[in-house]
Structure formats: structure tokens, C-alpha cells
Write a structure and sequence with these properties.
Chain lengths: 450, 450
Amino acid sequence: MKEKIDLLGAGLIGSLLAIYLKKRGLDVNIYEKRQDWRKIKKKGEGRSINMALSDRGWQALEKAGIKDKVLPFTLPMSGRRIHDEHGSTYFQPYGKENQAIYSISRNAFNEILLDEAEALGANIHFNHKVERVNVSKREVEFCLENGEEKRMTSDVLIGSDGSFSALRNAFQSQLRFNFYQKFISHGYKELHIPATPSGEFAMDPKALHIWPRGKFMLIALPNLDKSFTCTLFLPFEGYKVSFENIYDDQDVVKIFKTYFNDAFDLMPNLLADFKNNPTSSLINTECYPWTENNALLIGDAAHAMVPFYGQGMNCGFEDCFILDNLIEKYGTSSWDLVFEKFQKTRKPDTDAICQLAMDNFVEMSDDIADPNFLIRKKIEAKLHELYPEEWQPLYSMVTFSDMRYSEAYAIGKLQAKIMDEVMKDPNVTKNWNSLDYEAILAKVVTSGAV
Amino acid sequence: MKEKIDLLGAGLIGSLLAIYLKKRGLDVNIYEKRQDWRKIKKKGEGRSINMALSDRGWQALEKAGIKDKVLPFTLPMSGRRIHDEHGSTYFQPYGKENQAIYSISRNAFNEILLDEAEALGANIHFNHKVERVNVSKREVEFCLENGEEKRMTSDVLIGSDGSFSALRNAFQSQLRFNFYQKFISHGYKELHIPATPSGEFAMDPKALHIWPRGKFMLIALPNLDKSFTCTLFLPFEGYKVSFENIYDDQDVVKIFKTYFNDAFDLMPNLLADFKNNPTSSLINTECYPWTENNALLIGDAAHAMVPFYGQGMNCGFEDCFILDNLIEKYGTSSWDLVFEKFQKTRKPDTDAICQLAMDNFVEMSDDIADPNFLIRKKIEAKLHELYPEEWQPLYSMVTFSDMRYSEAYAIGKLQAKIMDEVMKDPNVTKNWNSLDYEAILAKVVTSGAV
């Protein structure tokens, strides 16, 4: 029996999920509110947000059989290159020598996935804006481009429609639904560093560049066309350097010259970009349940996180991977069972990564510029070198493994507690290399965490 | 200059607020989605939810000049009467001898307030269901009884439209708005104990009756017609005694005979009530900001709490009282200023009472039947007797004072910590009366809390 399944949202998660579902022989329709962006691009090309693909994402792409098509569109970043206020930079590797995260343009990536889903037979309906969902009837009301209304009743309905999910809104008003949304105090703005006049990268392309400045920061990720997409994170208000205090070009120039002078020199279009690009906000959402009556939330619709661990997309892809494993195991005769298993196993993990992403803003914007933090990282690196299995850095567990996020979170908490103790040693800066590393590790082992 | 102000929702909070605003000479319109329930009553009279009015509520009514009109409709309850499983009861006073909380029918109460608001010149528009609010334009779209649409643009807009506030929904989707909603694991059902055949109260009318049974409970409040309105709180699922496990009349009878046998004997209409009355859920919501662009959330719209501290309405009335104090102080030339001051001062207090209400379910349904809890209460009562200013029970600070909820909460936490220590004494059951009370109090004083 061929089964019919409807997805809301043709973004990264919806497209990858459609690929998985088509490969299971299902009849897949995707409804997307935007027009088909593949047809209207060409003018602003390359000017899109970058995503950082890491192991969980790759694993999901590999299972979907699309890894090799994606790889040519990515650039490996093997560490952070940190820019201090004087223009000096230094490099912090993310993991071992062969480990990296991969920069990829969101638009290009979405196109690859969408093309593949379509090639496999998924029907994509653009210009379908969800107006209303009746969860108990699984009935969706769309508003089309011409203002016309259209109704659809689904057998199985999946909301892969992002942070402001229409399906989740329906859950919120129609179910006994626990929901939490928090906008953080910071917003962001996309900026751009073009290739040099001779057509080269203006900075080291094998790193994610960070200008950490405490309460604010700038980051930059490389693009295939040898430009960088930059993101400026500032508080909306309440601080000297904040969006509310930027009135005109002079303010922008002043902030960049004061705090990001080396980047400023590489940004000929700074003022125009600053004016034309919107200031966007950052939201964290958590909710439960994710499923009701053969309808399911997935990806950002179920758990939108702030971008500071680079895991939002990877986590959404892992959602698809896990859901597909469950379909493999339980079949498609009871979607309620599959969806129920999915939310039960997955929820603790997405809670953990949401929390880690929130916590990581402090690390990215502040800690990484702190000498003590560097010593701490050195000690942790040495622990990992001496005991590669027993002490894995939290960042590696999250980024370079498929360990459950909740497990990584718990181990990370324990490691942090142990490291807090270690860092109390007043001589740690001098003798960090000759500490009793066996004794430090023993604390992990006796806790039963490993 | 006469100013125009629009309220959404003509419930208890909206009606009281309208009285305050009329008394300030403003032009007040209330839009209410229900029809005018004053015209359609008479048949189910007396069968409404009861509210428990306490000091904060009375203070607000007094300032609005309506206290004397309300008083005749109330019945004082000076304590809890606790029913054990064998039909024995005992009485726990809520406070000092002259202190009580007051039972009043929600419908009757709403009528008094609405009549008064109307008498003062407020215009009440019934059958106005909010379809959509545009916050930045302060534009409200209503759907009328006949299906017609109607638009209104407000100068000043206040959402007193309860736990599922339409204005709050608009805030949620249109602002950088932090929002949290949680449904607790329990639901409730209204039941009824009529007057005796001879026209008397079937139980002590000067108490709030509680049948605490750990994970569930029954409560009853007296009505003017000598009946009691009862509320059964059960988990929805996951326990033997839960709504999901009640399939038929026999299950209802079995639960009542097993756990509430003395109440069962007083409930001739139990089975019909159980069948006809809905099973309702309980929600806690917290959000911020409460105000934007001359629009404000107030009462349950800003902070819906579970009913276990009997403070939902009292807190909403206190909101009105505080808002009116701010209007008194700052005038009406800048509503944004008044609303901003209101949310800043009030938010920590509503957070505190939301948390206390959540915590109090455990006390009401479980602790109060525990011998250790009774000893604990005796020690606290004695502390209060010896040091009436320095040690006030948390319940009294919340219920019989106008101390800020956040302050009561903080003091309550400190007291709980001290009492946890005191209760560690293995002989406390025997020697509770001869403890070193001065030493116990000293812990409060040295903490700087008093």
C-alpha cells in the first residue's frame, strides 16, 4: 500500500526528510509558503547565510545517499581563528587533525536537497502559506499566491516549518501543550567580506573567524566564491555597543574601526550591507508533545535553538536520521507509534543541545579570549591526548560524534566541575603541563560517567 | 481632555479595571466575546465556580468603592477542614481568629462588577470575538454574532482577556516576546453538594473542605444557597486514579466510595454532574514584556496561574489596584510610562505567586495529611505567636497581607530552609513545644531577612 504523507516547509529539514520518505516508497507532498527560490536567484548569489555542517549532519546525509552531492559545495574549517583588538590572530583547532566543520551556503544546500527530493518524486507545492491547521481533523487551510484559499486533509502531517511553525501554533492553541519561547538579548546582522581584487580569499579560508568582544562579537565563514559571510551579534539595547545606539553610518564606522579594525579594512560594502540587511532576532523554543493524532513536529518547529553551537541544522538532520531508523524498525502501519517513540527518545537530547547552544554564546564571545580559558583548554586537550576515550572535550562530543546530546551534556557538566577544581590551583598557569593527570581522570572514572 | 481606552474581556479583572478607569474620568469600552450572561442566567444559578477572595482582593475592591456591595455575597472560611479516608475531619485555621478567606460565586461576582462598571458609564460590547490584533497599529478585528467582521483602532488597548488572551497571542507572533505555557499533569471537574432536605448546609460552612489523597484531591467551597461547589483534581493519566481510567458510572462510584465516602453520601447528582461537566485542564503561563505601543496585558492574560494558592483573581485585582496607583501618580498623559512602570514593578511578584501556586498543589493534596507537616505547622504557629512580626507564616504573608509576593516568596524560602533543619531533630514530635525558639528566630534575624 502506498501511503500519503504531507510535509509543511521545504527548508533544509523538510527537503532531507522528503528524500528519506521517498526512499521508503511513500507518496510525499511538501507545502512551502515561499515561491520557488531556485527560479529567482542569480542576482544576490553567494550572499546567503552559511551553515556549519558537522558529523551528525554528514551521517544523516550519508544515510540519505546524498553526501557525495553535497561535499563539493562545502569548505572545511578545522578550527577557530581568533582576531584580537590589535589585529593579531591565533588559531584554535576544533578537534584532531583530520576533524573539521564544513561551511556551506544555506541556499545552495537547500537547492541540492530540494532537487534530489523532486528527482525522487516528491511533489513540492510553492506559494502555499498555511493559514490554519485543525489538528484533530488534520486539516490544513492554505492561502495561495492569488489570495485564493485551499483546504487539504492529511493522513499523516509533518511540520518541518521552522521556528515559527504553523503546525506548532495549532498545537499550542488546540492541545494541552507545553511551550516555551525566549528571545535572547542579542540580535544579528549579515555582512560580507568579498574576495580580494586578485580573486583570492581575504583571510584564512580553513577557519571560522571570530572577533570575540565580550558582550558582542563578529564571525565570518568562507564561501566557495572566495568571499566570507559575516555575522555581527550585538545586544539590542542596554549596552554602549548595541543596535539601539547605532543611528547612522558614522556609528557603524566607529564601532568597526574600534573593535573590528582588521575586518573593517576588508569590507568595502559595510555601510550599504548594514543599511540593507535586516537586524534579526534569535529565538529559543522548546515544546512538548511533538506529536498528536498522526501529526508531528520536527527540526526547528519542535526545538529552535540559538546558533552558538552550530548545531541547529545538524540536530534537525539527526532528527530525520532517527525518525528514519524508527520507520525502518517499526514500519509505517502505525505512525502514532513511530512518532511517539521518536518524541520520547529525542526530547531529552534536543533539550540538552538547546541549553548548550544558549551557554555557548558566553564561550564564543567572551571566554575564548581569556588566558585562563586557554590554559583550561590546554589541560583538557592534554587529558584527551593521554586518555582519548575517557576524556573527550564537550565540543568534540557534540560536533564530532553521534553520542546522544543529553549524554554529552551530562559528561560536559561533570568535566566542567572537575576543571573548576583544577583551575583553583594558583600555579596552574605555570605548571599546567605537569599536573597529576591520572588523578584528574580518576575523578571522572569514579563518578561512573565513563 | 477625555481619553478613550479599550479593554478586551469583561471578566472579573476587566470589569474591575473598567470601574477604576471610569472613576478616573476616562472613556471606557469593553469588548467581550461571550453574550451578556446576565440576561440568560436563572436556570443553572448557584452552579458556578467559586472564588476565594482574600486581603489583596478586598483591598482592590475597597479602593474601587465596591467592597460593601460585594460583602453580602460572600461566605467567610476561616480555615481548612480536612477529611481523612475514614470520614473523620479536623480543622486547620488559615490564620488568626479574625482572619478568613471568602467564598463567592464567580458569576454573581462578575455581575456585580459589570453592573457597577456599566452604571459608571463603561460601554460593554458583547458578542465581540477577537479574530486578530495588529499590535503596531493597535487595530483589532472582531467577528460578531452574525458572522460579520468589525474593525477598531484603539488609542490605548488593554488585554484583560484571560489565560488564552488574544492580545497575548498577537504579542507572541508580532514582538520579541518571551513566553512560557505549561499544562500541569492534573485536570479538574466541578461537582456539587446540595443543601440538605431541610435546607441546611450539609457540612461546616465556615471552612474550605479538602479531601487530600496524595496524587489527587477533592475540595468544596460553600455557596449562599447552602450548597457546596466541589472540585475534583485528578491526574489526566499515568496513575491508577486518573481521568483516563474512568470509563463508566461504576468507576466514578468506586473512586468516591473508596476515597471520598463521606462526600459521596452528600452527592445525589454525582453521576450526572460527572457526565455533564467538562474535564478542564490547568495552565500556567508567564510572559514578558506585558506592554508595547500603548497596549498592555493584565491579569491572567499576563500571568495565568494554577488555582492551588487561591490567588489568581486576587493577584489580578491587585494588578488593577497597582495600575490605578500608577495612573494616580503619573497621570494619563503618557500611558507608555505608566505601563512600563507597571510591568517593571509587578513582574517579579507575579512570577513569585505563579511559582507558589504550582508548589502549593503538593501541600494541599499531600503534605497537609502528613503528621510531620502538622508538627511543622505547630512549630511555625508557635514561632508566629512568640514573634508575630518576625515570623509570619508564608500562607499569611500571601493571603492576609499586601506584602509583595516576591518578598513573601523569598522569606518563605528562608523559613523553609530553617524549618527543614528544625525538623531533622529526631525527637521533634515529642519536644516541639520546648524547642529553643529564640535560637530558631535568630537564624531569620541574622540572615537579614527581617
